[in-house]
From TrEMBL:
Residues 4-263 form the 5'-3' exonuclease domain. In addition to polymerase activity, this DNA polymerase exhibits 3'-5' and 5'-3' exonuclease activity. One of its GO terms (molecular function) is DNA-directed DNA polymerase activity. InterPro entries: 3'-5'_exonuclease_dom, 5-3_exonucl_a-hlix_arch_N, 5-3_exonuclease, 5-3_exonuclease_C_sf, DNA-dir_DNA_pol_A_CS, DNA-dir_DNA_pol_A_palm_dom, DNA/RNA_pol_sf, DNA_polI_H3TH. GO terms for biological process: DNA-templated DNA replication; double-strand break repair. Its EC number is 2.7.7.7. Keywords: DNA damage, DNA repair, DNA replication, DNA-binding, DNA-directed DNA polymerase, Exonuclease, Hydrolase, Nuclease, Nucleotidyltransferase, Transferase. It comes from Sphingobium algorifonticola. This is DNA polymerase I. PROSITE patterns: DNA_POLYMERASE_A.
DNA sequence: AGACTCACG
DNA sequence: GACGTACGTGAGTCTT
């Protein structure tokens, strides 16, 4: 038979906490019900766990009855100073019993005992019967009961707590907690304790001496101090305190254990209660069917599944999406109700709607929230007003909404869920809002499914794949092309359907992804690498980098002149004018008209005119080819960089704000768009001038910190190549070392070839590819590869093992556990398969490098702050490089911190057998910092 | 929309 | 015998 699992709900404890954490709400009868709402939402959440693995089979709500207990007989001052409960809480106490009855749950209270004692008694009885117990409470006294088979569950923080939690919070094991509590006392309950001893000292003493009696016995021999005197003087108070905090676990059971069996939750009484109280969001969900919970019996499958540490998603079928259940929030009362619902659930999905895709300039138009399936709303704040004749729809003032939401979004006890929260964080940061703690479903999806045959991790696709649901398309709401309107002009009913659906879908995706993260081993990379990076990236985007418009404009002019001159020369050489940018026309001129050799290529049958062909023709003496190459370079630089970049300068900040994607590159790298600041020229002197346009504010400098050869170092570690490892450890030039090993001699030529081969290895080499790069025969290239494998044993083993692993399990992994899937690794077509194999060889190396720099970025802010360097700003990431702007005077101190953080970024999760090297440069511009 | 080319790591 | 030649990106231009 399945393991019985008893949930004991500390109802009295909960109601006080809910009362203080939730905004005041009133029911249709005008009675205050904020705490009742929180309590109801909590029971709802517990009910949703029925049937889940580790979910309850038995449940009871335990309440205090009366105020006089046996502890008062023991000590008349016990709880003597406790103020009477607030006026508007008192009438809510009986309603708690109504709520409990509405869920058809037993409600247990016993005169003369506190709820804690009843809980302790049932816990002991259940353990004796071989059951598991979960105590739903956050009361520290109850933590004494934690033991194997007994945990605590804080529904507001959505946290399960075991012995580790007690150890972390109090520094002792649960069985020693009573002694610690006795020493430290409790001012709220008026447990005296020993004066001058707080939690830290109490834990230290108990750890050192074992228990309270031993501490008291040892006191006279302690070195003279106030503490020693206090321990001696107040030893009797300490002993009394010990008895007061002791939980009484040997009462007679008011109800037998079997009476607590859960049989399911009949809908009718629950519906009547919810209607009476006006709890609309919960009613919506009841209609949806989420609460029609099956009778509880743990299935074998459920019992076998590993229990996630957080609340399990609803095991019963979730209600299909019903847009008619969404609410448009236009009154303060309604907003309060949603905020209370979020507090009650401990989780809320959020999405912002704006009038632009550019998060750094977008204006907030509305916010949607979801607290459960179909329990979603839209709060318009900026609709209308774009047309002076149009009437603005009724909506809450922006400031009101911001002020009400700010505490919720920063509240530790409510998890915020969003799809691409980086965007919302950036938009809301301008209103002084911080979002924490949070989960981001786009990042979760990426960490689970990178590389799987999905087009991406966007919400529309995720909803289709995981929820079998088609979301309202954005363009169906705002139109497209010249008829497109701003979201601010969308009528509220349409806006609500669209926006609330986004929040609803986001929360549903979360319930799917969250347990998958644990089951599929993606929690580490998600929680330690990618999720903490989200706010870091949001801040970098918001900071931007200053760009010298005049410098770019001057370059544009110079490039234009160069382009014009080359155009004239090229047309003269061709004997006719033509569009040089058209590969078709260029091919016709070069190969048909001028008769140069170089065949057709590609399925289109067009001539190839790329850089390798033109270089070759140039080497053979074709003047026009050289000119076309120069023309192309200048055109590229002008159109893609000098012109486009000027247009990207934000008029308000005078800086360029790129957007980073955390989910764009399959390997885990970031990518940069609008504009892409990860491909600013550097390789040619002409292109490099563009980097000089990226400058620091007066009095500041740009600092660039690069990992040196990080991918080769990782290859040396991961493939375990002794010769390479030694070379890196000794600080040798790695390409020289390779040249020495392969060719027996080091000169410019052999070093260049060695460098090519080193990179080729990282990318999954083929003899033809290497042959083309080195302009040698395939046989000669094959010899070289064989020699490489011979000199660097480990490489070929790594390659074979990586491909094997990818084929067997479908994915590769980085040192930090990031997965990249390779569905095509079993493709029937050889070239497809080989392509996947090469990518699979590269992914663990490129991905580990990405993990490392991401961890450096996450740690950088706190490390700089700890060093008092809060004026140092991280601006850009370019795969193996971080770019900062900082006051000139901070250069020395900041360099040291940056180097330490970057070089140590892998630890302690991963211990590398090669050192990570970082090169740092500074200057007035990015160009000068290299 | 897709091919081509080319900028970066 | 044909395939198509190194991994990962994003943007601009031309063509369909």
């Amino acid at each position: 038979m399945s393991q019985n699992h008893l949930y004991l709900v500390d109802g009295s404890g909960y109601i006080f906490r809910a009362y203080h954490q939730l905004p005041p709400l009133t029911n249709p009868q005008g009675q205050p019900v904020g705490a009742v709402y929180g309590y109801t939402a909590m029971l709802w959440k517990l009910a949703a766990e029925l049937g889940a693995a580790e979910g309850p089979t038995h449940m009871a709500v335990i309440l205090d009855k009366g105020s006089h207990t046996f502890r008062n007989d023991m000590y008349d001052q016990y709880k003597a100073h406790r103020p009477p409960p607030p006026e508007d809480l008192v009438p809510q106490f009986p309603m708690i019993r109504d709520a409990t009855r509405a869920f058809s749950l037993p409600c247990i209270e016993e005169a003369g005992f506190e709820a804690d004692d009843i809980i302790a008694t049932y816990t002991r009885a259940a353990i004796a019967a071989g059951w598991h117990v979960t105590i739903v409470s956050s009361d520290k006294d109850l933590m004494q009961l934690i033991q194997p088979g007994v945990d605590m569950y804080d529904t507001m923080k959505n946290e399960r707590r075991g012995p580790d939690y007690v150890m972390g919070k109090f520094g002792v094991a649960p069985e020693q907690l009573g002694d610690v509590l006795a020493l430290m006392g409790d001012s709220v309950d008026n447990v005296p304790g020993v004066p001058g001893i707080g939690p830290k000292t109490a834990a230290k003493l108990i750890t050192e001496y074992g228990d309270l009696e031993k501490v008291l016995a040892a006191a006279p021999d302690m070195k003279p101090s106030k503490m020693r005197d206090n321990l001696i003087e107040h030893s009797e108070m300490a002993r009394l305190s010990r008895r007061l905090v002791e939980l009484k676990s040997d009462m007679a059971l008011p109800e037998p254990l079997d009476a607590l069996t859960l049989k399911g939750i009949p809908e009718a009484p629950l519906r009547a209660f919810l209607e009476h109280q006006g709890f609309k969001a919960l009613l919506n969900r009841l209609s949806g069917g989420a609460a029609k919970v099956a009778p509880t019996s743990l299935t074998q499958d459920a019992a076998a599944a590993p229990a996630p540490p957080m609340a399990s998603p609803v095991a019963a079928p979730v209600a299909p999406i019903d847009r008619s259940a969404y609410e448009t929030v236009v009154t303060a009362d309604a907003l309060d109700r949603w905020i209370a619902a979020a507090h009650g659930e401990g989780i809320v999905a959020i999405d912002t709607e704006t009038d632009s895709l550019d998060s750094t300039s977008a204006r907030l138009v509305g916010i949607s929230l979801a607290t459960g399936p179909n329990a979603a709303c839209y709060i318009p704040v900026g609709h209308g007003g774009t047309d002076m004749f149009a009437e603005k729809p009724e909506q809450l003032p922006l400031d009101t909404v911001i002020e009400k939401l700010r505490p919720l979004l920063a509240d530790d006890s409510v998890l915020k869920v969003g799809q691409n929260l980086k965007y919302d964080m950036t938009v809301l940061a301008r209103h002084g809002i911080t979002i924490a703690p949070f989960d981001d479903t786009i990042v979760m999806s990426f960490d689970l499914d990178a590389g799987k045959s999905l087009a991406g991790h966007g919400m529309d696709e995720a909803a289709r794949v995981h929820l079998d649901h088609i979301c309202i398309a954005f363009k169906d709401v705002v139109g497209s092309g010249k008829n497109q309107i701003s979201f601010a002009e969308v009528p509220l009913d349409k806006a609500t359907a669209y926006a609330a659906e986004d929040a609803d879908v986001t929360l549903r995706l979360w319930t799917i992804f969250k347990p998958r993260l644990h089951q599929e081993g993606a929690t580490r990379v998600y929680e330690l690498v990618d999720r903490p990076l989200v706010p870091v990236i949001a801040t970098m985007e918001r900071t931007g980098i200053k760009v010298d418009r005049d410098h770019l404009s001057r370059l544009s002019g110079e490039f234009a002149d160069g382009i014009a001159a080359l155009e004239t020369e090229i047309h003269a050489l061709a004997g006719q004018p033509f569009a040089i940018g058209s590969t078709q026309q260029l091919g016709a001129i070069l190969f048909d008209k001028l008769g140069l050799k170089g065949g057709k290529k590609g399925k289109s049958g067009a001539y190839s005119t790329d850089v390798t062909i033109l270089e070759k023709l140039k080497a053979e003496g074709s003047e026009i080819s050289g000119k076309v190459l120069d023309w192309r370079q200048l055109s590229k630089l002008k159109s893609t960089y000098t012109d486009a970049l000027q247009a990207q300068i934000n008029p308000v900040t005078g800086r360029v704000h790129t957007s980073y994607s955390l989910t764009g590159a399959q390997t885990g790298r970031l990518s940069s768009t609008d504009p892409n600041l990860q491909n600013i020229p550097i390789r040619t002197e002409t292109g490099r001038q563009i980097r000089h346009a990226f400058i620091a504010e007066p009095g500041n400098v740009i600092l660039a910190a690069d990992y040196s050869q990080i991918e080769l170092r990782l290859a040396a570690h991961m493939a375990d190549v002794p010769a390479l490892r030694e070379a890196f450890a000794a600080g040798e030039d790695i390409h020289n070392r390779t040249a020495q090993e392969l060719f027996g001699t080091v000169n410019r030529d052999t070093r260049g070839r060695a460098k090519t081969i080193n990179f080729a290895i990282l990318y999954g080499i083929s003899r033809w590819g290497l042959a083309a790069r080195l302009e040698i025969g395939a046989d000669e290239a094959q010899d070289m590869i064989s020699r490489y494998y011979e000199r660097f044993p480990g490489i070929s083993v790594y390659i074979n093992e990586t491909i094997e692993k990818a084929r067997a399990q479908g994915y590769t992994e980085t040192l930090f556990g990031r997965k990249t899937w390779f569905p095509r690794i079993t493709a029937p077509l050889q070239h497809e398969r080989q392509g996947a194999e090469r990518a699979a060889i590269n992914a663990p190396i490129q991905g580990t490098s990405a993990d490392i720099i991401k961890r450096a970025m996450v740690r950088m802010g706190p490390a700089l702050e700890a060093a008092g360097l809060d004026r140092v700003k991280m601006l850009l990431q370019v795969h193996d490089e971080l770019v900062f702007e900082l006051p000139e005077g901070d250069v020395e101190a900041a360099s040291a911190v940056i180097r330490t953080v970057m070089e140590g970024a892998a630890e302690p999760m991963v211990k590398l057998s090669v050192p990570l090297g970082v090169e740092i440069g500074t200057g007035p511009s990015w160009g000068a910092a290299h």
